[in-house]
Amino acid sequence: MGGLHRRKKKTVGAVFGFRGLRTIEDNQALLETATIETLALENSISRNRALASFAAVGAKLIEVGDLEERLAVLEAATRYAPVPGDDDLDDEL
User: Fold this and answer.
1) Coil, helix or strand for 27?
2) Is the separation of the CB atoms in 17 and 29 below 8 Å?
3) Cα–Cα distances in angstroms (integers) from residue 35 to residues 30, 53, 67, in the given order
4) In terms of Cα–Cα distance, which of 43, 47, 23, 22 is closest to 34?
5) Contacts of 18 (CB under 8 A, 6+ apart)
6) CB 55 within 8 A of CB 38
7) DSSP tag of 84
8) pLDDT greater than 80 at residue 84
9) Residue 37, SS3?
10) Which residues contact 68 (CB under 8 A, 6 or more apart)?
11) From the CB of residue 50, how many other CB atoms can be counted at a distance below 10 Å?
12) What angle, rounded to 10 degrees, do the helices at 45-80 and 24-39 form?
């Protein structure tokens, strides 16, 4: 059964383009797939709640992605920016 389960997991992952949940992009891709599949269901209160939930999660993923990008830019800028007062440290050596 273990081998069958692994093959099924790979097959289903390939059909839906699922690569895992390790990155924000992976999570967004899964959310998009779930949203499309849910949109295809018959209209109901449960379906609409699920879609509202997907929208909230999607907004959070966008927010986290934006913050991640901004943090990367700040880290890159501070990595190469001179620190005020650093000249004094060089004189002491």
Assistant:
1) helix
2) yes
3) 8, 10, 24
4) 47
5) 12, 26, 29, 30, 33
6) no
7) T
8) no
9) helix
10) 24
11) 17
12) 160
Instruction: Measure the CA–CA gap between 70 and 72, rounded to whole angstroms.
Output: 5
91 token code pair: 């004189």
Q: Pull the structure tokens for residue 65.
A: 């992605």
**Residue 74 has which token pair?**
């700040």
**pLDDT, tens only, 34-63:** 999 999 999 999 999 999 999 999 999 999
Asked whether the whole model's pTM tops 0.70, one would answer no
Domain ranges of the chain: 25-81
Give Dmax (Cα) for the chain.
74
**Which contacts (CB < 8 Å, 24+ apart) does range 21-30 have?**
24/61, 24/64, 24/65, 24/68, 27/61, 28/58, 28/61, 28/65
